[in-house]
Amino acid sequence: MGTRKEIDGSASVPAFYGKELRWKREAARRTLQQLVEGCFYGVSYLSEIERGQRRMPLDLARHIDRELNTDGFFARRCEDVRNARKSVHAPYFADAVEMEGRARDIEEWSPMFIPGPLQLEPYIREIVHAFNPMDDEAAVERKVSARRERAWVFEDAEGPASWVVFHESILRQPIVGDQLMAEQLAHVAAVARRRRFIPQILPCNTGAHPFMMGSTYLMSFSDAPPVMYTEGMYSGQIIDDPGIVVRYQQAYNRLRAAALPPEVSLKMIESAAEDYRNGNYAHRVERGHMA
Questions:
Q1: In what helix (H) or strand (E) does residue 229 lie, and over which residues does it extend?
Q2: What's the DSSP call for residue 205?
Q3: Which residue in 54, 61, 118, 276 could disulfide with 181, CB within 3.0 to 4.6 Å?
Q4: pLDDT at residue 106 in the model
């Protein structure tokens, strides 16, 4: 049995809210498992709310108010907690960012873009402009800053052990100009060379493979069950059902088996960076079109 962790309710609004939830639950002599019965959320989800590490969805707050006879307290206050936790990240990604900070291991499948924590400013700007063309410069700056703040995930020696499978098309479809793309790919390779993460490239000619739709982010923790985050263009979802997470983990293992070995993949990233730097990439594309 894990050691019970005390909650410092003075640390933040979410921590205060979570501590009150735990107090009410224990006063009613209910376990986490008993309290989530009859709703669509798991024990680990509720435990993280109690520790101030996750937001309380309104439907769950209403369920708890009914179960604990708290006269609508948690439903009334969950929006206050949500507002206290607002960040520049998309709402559907906020919980994933919070969990990222506590992850022991991260395994990622990146089919379209270089992962956010590895992106440099020019690359980030192009993606922000593409997805949110109406953002003014101040909004763009906030998003660039927020994404660069996550660089520690791959660059910090004390960060989680990370493994990333990239689709080869990320190397072949430039998001920015040739010289900036060269710098971006060289940065990815340099971080990998410092043993901050393990890269693998899934070749374009692989054929059918797991995770053919959407990006995937698997996180394991020292003190909580693993979770998976999957994302589309304007939406994302955290999955913490143990059976489903295991199936995704097994699929990710098959994806790694289909990808090129790490050292071969790293050399491919470095080679692509060199092609962009020397202007060879554009000539290669032109020859391909003429063939």
A1: strand 227-231
A2: G
A3: 276
A4: 94
Amino acid letter for position 103: A
The pLDDT score that the predictor gives to residue 159 is 86
Reading the block at residue 251, the tokens are 């699929």
**How far is Cα 201 from Cα 183, in angstroms, rounded to an integer?**
19
- Separation between Cα atoms, residue 80 and residue 177, nearest integer Å: 44
Task: Could you list the beta-strand ranges (E) of 69-212.
Answer: 105-110, 161-167, 198-202
Reference 139, options 124, 161, 150, 158; nearest CA is 124
**The token pair that represents 248 in the structure block:** 């995704």
Contact by Cβ (8 Å): 232, 214: yes
Q: Which residue has the higher pLDDT, 210 or 277?
A: 277
DSSP 118-143: G--HHHHHHHHHHH-TT--HHHHHHH
State mean pLDDT over 13-36.
90
